[in-house]
Design brief:
mainly beta, Methylamine Dehydrogenase, Chain H, 4-stranded antiparallel β-sheet
């Protein structure tokens, strides 16, 4: 998701230098054009068929990019935003404009599930540990749950104007999410119990992931990567190597984190100690990140060139 870049606040952080990893083959980047004017892929997930699937709110499409670069799409209309693969072998998509959750099969069949609140603005979505899909409602101040049969349950957030953004499954079996409008991180159990944890003012928390038994949050305006325990305590704050990096995507590969940096058109790798060990320039503006079955990275580009990137990490 894209939000305006605001001035970064000064924080007491641990600044770590980038080092170059020399062992193994160097990563390679290949960008696949979607071959459509005004295509702007946003979120991305690996489908049950092994292909990369990317939402496009500009054209109202769900793009498919095969492992060899073949491109096709499914027309969804509206403003598709988040995408995740469900336990039922389908893609599940949030559609913000009409407040819908869509189920899309790899063959292109679409089933629509309407949310009760037309202004809910569903954004990110993830497959939960309970066999259901969980999603954020950025303007509805709720976390939603939908079963593969289409049954919807919504849980109100304690904070008004939270703008719940990204969501991930934690190592504790709960769902963890960022509240970009309130500078908080939230936790919701599968039973619907919600806790919130406060970050520094002006942090603009965005991407969130679990790795090494911890929760990791990229703070877009603060330009830091934060590590949290499952009790909500901050256990590390690490300054990103580049100024104004604007980290907008996060993925976990082999017990390391990769961040998509929109502001510097690059990807950066961090180990679980918070050391940044490799920075990789790409041609476009990387946004959402995901990991393929072979451990490669795939990213959606947030600029108007309309590309999906494939990174072979090599060594």
């Amino acid at each position: 998701m894209q939000l305006p870049i605001r001035r970064a606040v000064a924080l007491a952080v641990t600044a770590l230098a980038v080092t170059t990893t020399t062992a193994g083959a160097a990563p390679t980047v290949k960008e696949h054009s979607l071959r459509a004017a005004h295509a702007v892929p946003a979120d991305i997930a690996i489908g049950p068929d092994g292909a990369a699937w990317a939402t496009d709110g500009s054209l109202g499409r769900l793009w498919r990019v095969g492992t060899k670069g073949a491109v096709s799409h499914v027309d969804l209309g509206g403003g598709p935003a988040g995408v995740a693969t469900g336990p039922d072998g389908a893609l599940w998509v949030t559609e913000r404009g009409d407040a819908r959750i869509l189920r899309v099969t790899p063959g292109g069949d679409v089933t629509t599930h309407q949310l009760p609140d037309a202004g809910a603005f569903p954004t990110d979505i993830v497959a939960g540990p309970d066999g259901a899909l969980w999603f954020t409602e950025s303007r509805g101040d709720r976390i939603g749950r939908i079963t593969t049969a289409g049954e919807i349950t919504e849980f109100p957030l304690p904070t008004t104007g939270a703008f719940a953004a990204d969501i991930a499954v934690g190592p504790d079996g709960a769902l963890w999410f960022t509240e970009s409008g309130a500078d908080k991180v939230g936790r919701i159990t599968t039973a619907g119990e919600i806790s919130e944890f406060v970050l520094s003012a002006g942090a603009l928390p965005g991407p969130i992931a679990a790795a090494g038994g911890s929760i990791w949050v990229a703070q877009r305006d603060a330009n830091v990567l934060t590590r949290m325990s499952t009790s909500g305590a901050i256990t590390g704050t690490f300054a990103l190597p580049a100024e104004h990096a604007n980290p907008v995507g996060i993925a976990v590969v082999d017990d390391a984190l990769w961040l998509a940096q929109l502001g510097t058109q690059s990807l950066v790798r961090a180990d679980l100690g918070g050391a940044f060990t490799r920075e990789l320039d790409v041609r476009s503006s990387p946004d959402a990140l995901t990991v393929g079955a072979d451990g490669d990275l795939w990213y959606a580009s947030a600029d108007s060139r309309g590309v999906v990137g494939h990174v072979r990490l090599g060594g």
